[in-house]
Amino acid sequence: MNIQQIDVTEKVVSLKEPFITALRTVTEVEVIEVKITLDSGITGVGSAVPTYAITGESKESIIAAIEHPITDALLHTPVYSFQEMIRLVQKSCIQNYSAKAAVDMALHDAYSKSLGIDLLEFFGGGSIPLQNDMTISLSSKEEMNQQMQRHTRAGFTQMKVKLGTSGKEDIARILYLAENANENIEFRIDANQAWSPKEAITLIHVLEANQVPVQFIEQPVAADDLEGLKYVREHVHLPIMADESCRTLKDAHHIIKMGAADMLNIKLMKCGGLNEARAIADLAQTVRMPCMVGSMMESHLSVAPIAALASAHPNITMVDLDAPLWLEDEEAKSNLFYEDGVVSWRKSTEARLSI
User: Binding positions for Mg(2+) (predicted)?
Assistant: First the structure.
């Protein structure tokens, strides 16, 4: 079987409410969708989103990379050489990881369908629901508490808290949330690169002294400051997770070699696809470093594939896959099912994970 056609479309999806972090404010998402058609008529789909502040990719650059170097590399390649096709995507151009991820997903989707299975079965994952978190967008402490109470009523027990203004304000926010949280609530603190190393240490020591139930601190310092990340890790007890610092397999190797983090956050838009994501998780497993999978503000088309991988990989122990819950109408379209703080798969004999 051959790839007969690669189609690229785009759409804009509105958010139910603004998503605010230390890096950006999002009110709508530009989604670039890819459909690969095989000569058998089987189709595979994937998607990408531009995230200037993290990947440096724009809508225009993603579309250009897919329509030209990636399509040129893939068109009419036999589908039975699946791994070679994946390698061709990665070699087609430098960087452009979000564009590569969209095509990588579509290839996985098409290939698994050609085998008569879906992506969940392809990776060998089970049907056990994944414990998910819900993000508390950066705002005043009172508004953030309202978000937390709403998420608690929806069944979430793990709250990902966006911080990243001044250290004093951030301390006030998280202590206020801790005071008002149910006893079963745990926090994941995400500064999105906003703190200096010393500021991060001071803030984390306050959290530790007040025994705030924090699972980890995510990306406290600038992405390119691995020495600073390591310095923070060496001076606190709470686990440190690398997110923006860990884009590719090469980045993961460097972080591990330096001892700069305790955990890694893997995202398809950063690393370039499912094969690369699995390789990062495999590498981290060799040194017993647990991984979380997450996403940008993405549609279900790109969240579902990473959820399938997470269900199967023993070293992916946490997920941060709430993005479809922020987007208008996305949850209804997805084969992912969100309820009581977990994400699982809709029970349907005709279900295909990425459609």
Answer: 190, 218, 243
